[in-house]
Amino acid sequence: MNEFALARRLAEVLETDPELSAWIGSKYPGRPFSTYLGMDNRVPPGESACPFAILFPDGKTAGDGVAEKEHVILMRLAVANGAVTKSGSRTSYAGIEDITSFADLAVAAIARNVFSLGLDWFRFEREFDHVNYFPMFVADFRFVFVQHVSVTDNQYD
């Protein structure tokens, strides 16, 4: 499987996951969930496109003598919610809670589908950006998907 095909399958998983769809529908009624396979960095999706996911193929490890292929996919999730609540000395930004929930639901959707994607397991790193895009809140992921191979498999596919 090449990385673009994997990114496309991941977009399909996110687009069709019932739990993620229900959450988006309750938090952002009337706003469609958009997915992008790559993007134009000069004109990235903005607040009006939220909520959205951008998937980028990023790399692969494969070859002779490798027992596992690793497929690397980058993903950016974004929501737009500038609501602020104050209670005593505490100020809370709703978008931070939203992006955290969105990120958790997206990972859960991927985890529920990892085997149907022909993969064995995955790991990820996640970082949040709460400052640079307000009122958008962003989560950036680096996923490494692992696929066990045998000597009869195409080591370079």
Description:
The protein has one domain: Alpha-Beta Plaits, CATH 3.30.70. The protein has 3 helices and 7 strands, in the order H-H-E-E-E-E-E-H-E-E. The model has no long low-confidence stretch (mean pLDDT 91). A hairpin with a 2-residue loop joins strand 4 and strand 5. The chain has a 5-stranded mixed β-sheet, covered by helices on one side. A two-stranded antiparallel ribbon has the order 4-5. The N and C termini lie close together (6 Å). Helices cover 28% and strands 36% of the residues. The protein has 157 residues and is an alpha+beta fold. 24% of the residues are buried.
At the fold tier of CATH, the topology name is Alpha-Beta Plaits
The CATH class is Alpha Beta
How many structurally independent domains? 1
Q: Calculate the terminal CA-CA distance, rounded to whole Å.
A: 6 Å
Which regions contain 5 or more consecutive residues with pLDDT less than 50? Answer: none
Spatial shape: elongated
- Summing up helix and strand content along with how strands pair, one would put the structural category as alpha+beta
Order of helices and strands: HHEEEEEHEE
Assigned CATH architecture: 2-Layer Sandwich
Strand order of the largest sheet: 1-2-3-7-6
Strand content: 35-45%
**DSSP helical segment count:** 3
- Helical percent range? 25-40%
Strand tally, please?
A: 7
Characterize the main sheet.
5 strands, mixed
Query: How large, in whole angstroms, is the Cα Rg?
Result: 17 Å
Average pLDDT, rounded to a whole number, is 91
